[in-house]
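dumping this here before i forget
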Amino acid sequence: MIKAIFFDLDDTLLWDQKSIKEAFIATCRIAEERYGIDAEELESAVREAAKKLYSTYDTYPFTQMIGINPFEGLWGTFLDEIKEFKKLKEIVPAYRKDAWTAGLKKMGIDDADFGHELAERFPEQRRKLPFVYEDTFETLESLKGMYQLLLLTNGSPHLQNTKLEISPELVPYFDQIVISGDYGRGKPDPGIFEYALSKLSLAKEEAIMVGDNLMTDILGANRAGIKSVWINRHNKQRNEVIPAYEIQHLADLHTILEELNQN
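structure:
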């Protein structure tokens, strides 16, 4: 009998990739207007520079373990108490400026001051642009009261809570919110799933995990012995990680839950 549903946050309920894309578009257009360079090409150059830079810092293994990607580093402030987050907080201002400045350089523009200006503008744009998938609220509304709902998200507690603050309608649906930065390890570590079960006093057979990422949400649930549901909204190719179920819309959860609760 399924009593609880664990939901991932980014690109499961919130459309984080779209928020990042739109923030890049808005910021790169400033450079297009200033210097006449192609906004899409600049975005690609900054993304590439950010990924390269991000992997050079001492904090990289920690960000990998907790689940904080390079583009979150371009807008997060990481006002968290843990030592590694404090290091990240010190690194990110220069990281942002250097990523944007390197992107501009690739486009033939050597202007560190403008790089700094764009680096400051990007977080402003990202905060203005939260996107929630259109089926998120309808699905959560239909499940609330019938199941315990738990949000299980990788990332910095401060950054994930910022995402929730700018989409405040989400929070009331959840009985518990578990963030990897608070726990100390991220998905796919089975420990965070076991910790989530303990928060609801449930056995692994009584929960299912819904997420978009095969290598974190699905792999972690599988390792913890929790049934996994892969939400594949954008027709991604499946890899070696096999979910128990695959859906394209959150509403399809109802059919799965009915089937599981009949057995």
